Amino acid sequence: MPGMPELKILLEQAGKQQLAYRFALVALLVSAGMALIAWQYSHQLIFTLGAFIFVAALPVIWLKKQKTKRLDKFEEQLPDALNMMARAMQTGYPFSECMKIVSTEMSEPISMEFGMTFEEINYGRDIEVAFALMIERVPSLSLIAMVTAVMIQRETGGNLSELLLKISAVLSGRFKLQRRIKTLSAEGKMSAWVMILLPFALFALVNSINPGYFKPVYESPDRMMYLYVFWAWS
Questions:
Q1: Which range has the worst mean pLDDT, 14-23, 161-170, 171-180, 222-231?
Q2: Closest CA to 146 of 99, 101, 189
Q3: Using CA atoms, how far apart are residues 25 and 31, in angstroms rounded to an integer?
Q4: Where residue 86 sits, what CATH number does that domain have?
Q5: Is 84:98 a contact under the CB 8 Å cutoff?
Q6: DSSP alpha helices (H): ranges in the chain?
Q7: DSSP one-letter code for 71
């Protein structure tokens, strides 16, 4: 079905185990139901179509939000995981066993991703292919940097545990910088949300204080046009 491979990847990146076609089928059925309700109440084709598109887009928006949240959590856990792997390698564990330690000692989502990659390597898949699949599931810049450094070290040689510790320090500094930037930009985002919601809040306030204030708009034959103009202006 068209779009199912992309939806499957999005579900994996969001950490969901549902089948793509089932997720799409449920979303379409709910959207059709909401569109039918909108048609019964408004008898306006544009409102019916808008309700269908809006409800159909909500699951995709929710998946993308879950994907972003999961990636942020993964990047936050990655420096600690690299530290754990480096300490384990210093005590004599091989690289693949260090990944297994991360999968058993840490929480989701990094435990699941490192566990899947360990199983793929353990069952004979090439380590480069296993890491490429991991990057496909977790498109994180920090993970790409770690994998690139590990692959270069495998070709050139060197102390892998020391390399992992250095990567961990760099990623920790990067994460702290990103968190500081988000904190500084939170005030601007709050101001934007206030400006967006202000017209709707003002409409609700006036309507509650004086219910008859908007009565000419409700009774006007051009009320639908007024709503379109208000929506476009907002």
A1: 222-231
A2: 99
A3: 10
A4: 1.20.81
A5: yes
A6: 4-13, 20-42, 45-90, 95-105, 110-122, 127-137, 141-156, 160-209, 215-219, 223-233
A7: H
Question: Which two tokens mark 43?
Answer: 């008898």
Residue 210, domain member (yes or no): no
- Residue the block writes with tokens 């754990």: 84
Domain tally, the chain: 1
Pairwise CA distance, residues 140 & 21, whole Å:
26
In a domain, 22, yes or no: no
pTM of the model: 0.69
C-alpha 59/C-alpha 45 separation (Å) is 23
Tokens of 185: 């930009």
* Cβ–Cβ < 8 Å for 52, 35: yes
Q: For position 177, what pLDDT does the model report? A: 83
Domain containing 92: what range? 71-181
Nearest partner of 60 among 5, 11, 2, judged by Cα: 11
- CA proximity to 171, closest of 89, 109, 82, 98: 82
Determine, yes or no, domain membership for 64. Answer: no
Segment 145-197, tens digit of pLDDT: 889 888 888 888 778 888 888 888 888 888 788 778 877 777 777 888 888 78
The torsion region of residue 124 among left (phi > 0), alpha (psi -120 to 50) and beta comes to: left
Classify residue 233: in a domain, yes or no: no
